[in-house]
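Appendix B: complex inputs.
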Amino acid sequence: MRHAVTLRIGPATFRIGSAWPQPIAQLSRLYSAYPDMAGHIADFTVRLQPTNMARRWLRPSIFITGDHGLADAAPMSLAHGLLAAEMGMNLQMALGWRRHLLLHASSVEKDGRVLVMTGESGSGKSTLSALLGERGWRFMGDEFALLDLITGHILPFPRLVSLKNSAIAVVEQAVGEPRMGPLLIGTAKGDIRHMVPRADAVARMDEDAPPRLLLFPRFGHAPAIRPVGQAEIFMRLTQASTNYVALGQPGFTALTRFVRGIPAHAIDFPDGDTAIAMVEELWGNAP
Amino acid sequence: MSATLLIRALRDPAFAAMLDTSAWNGLLAAARAERLIGTLALRLEGQSVPDAVRPILTDALADTARDAQQAIWEADRAAFALRDTGLPVILLKGGAYVAAGLSAGRGRFIGDLDILVPRAGLEVAERALMAAGWEWVKEDPYDDAYYRQWMHELPPMIHGERDRMIDVHHTILPLTARPTPDAAAMVADAVPLGNGLFLLSAEDRVIHAVAHMLADGDLQGGLRNLWDIHCLLADVEPAVLAMRAARHGLSRRVAQARRLAAYLYGDGASLTPWDRIIAARLSARNGWGQETRKLLVFAFFVRSHWLRMPPLMLARHLFTKWRKGHRPQ
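Resulting structure:
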């Protein structure tokens, strides 16, 4: 491919190729603080290629694929090329990663222990992890938490944080312009803007830590804290994991230990400040 | 050309020691694209490879071990569903290789379960599988009718709970293809595996793999199919294979597959010009795992249709598919 960059995020290395220069230039800028992996062997290849020959030049349209791909992946506009590259990396992890149990969750660390937050898109887990990362916590990841099958620790996967719609303004204010990517208007998930994690999150991306608390956040409701039973947690996490089935018994063992080992709550919140206060309180009370 | 690297590494694993990082990236991308990463991982066991490569190969081996376990379970479930029909359940392709512990099954990616039953038992088999939870996936009435009238298999079915696909064959080539293999002879000579499961005889396994690769389809996944053939050939008696191939009308194809397998994966062979075109199609992949030689690839796509049906029927089929919005990629 004509344009390429190799990035390492936590334990995974990606070789990203593109038919167009723009997505690679944007990645190179936003990932400039990450390790330089040029000329290394990558775990995964990601390709941003034209949906057909004419679409390289004429109303450019990106087909996201690579070592692992989906035949029916929706084409994306070149204006959303950065998002396409991020989705391409996510796709490789979701379909191809086997070295840890992948949880579709955000995670942050404090005092050597990890807070894991899981929920559907729009639950606020991403925004919450980004905000906590600016307020004394170490940001570990907004999309995937990697659960080690042997130690039971959570490994960081701190790629760019993908902020959507109303979350953009909230986080923009907190982190400032230099750490923000281009505003991508009108994607399939609305407006999206990427945020570069703080330097400490990137510098410490090889440091794992044991989990301490699991939360199921839900944005847009009056503040409430509810208990969640272990059986329900287990089921929800199997659904929130893309490689649980592929890992077989080791995945089952690791997930069982994770669910049994830490307290969990569902929390509803109307805004970021309320959520942070709730999180701090639950964290203080956790064993 | 990274497909060339893949062929070379499969043939001669010690070759891997000579690769630089860019070649490794190309080799891994090609191996994944050709679904040969598990086979490559097995071939490279005991070779010295860079640290960054080791976990990738370990993951691939774990994936193929899981594939094998799932394939054996699916075969077991199919045999169980068909236990009262009195039909032999003859495993084909990957499922057969794994269930019988053949070298072709080691490290192999396995997708659907493929079985062969006698044509007279097709309806009974279909009913028994549906009673056991398999469901139709082709909702288009044209596709469904097309399969039933012209193909060598029932329309694919998927199991409602396990989400796994089964292809029920009654012969090894579409009924519209020019060669007409003797499916009854294949069934008669099948080898029992126990538990109501069978596999084709060693010679018929080669012939089926050859028919699938060279007399049907557009050579997508051809390197994997040829690797199967390369492994399967080790178990046959050449004279028996030649007799058997003649019986099924596939002598020319079998001879060609033997030349290609020897040329790409074995001790070498002299190729005809037509062999060379196929070899060029098989190695059409660049260092990013993308298909190259687009015109050649497209020509083989056209050829696959030409092989499959007579011209008038082909025209009608393409017109129907085009009206439904299908376009070749």
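Chain A is about 30% helix and 35% strand.
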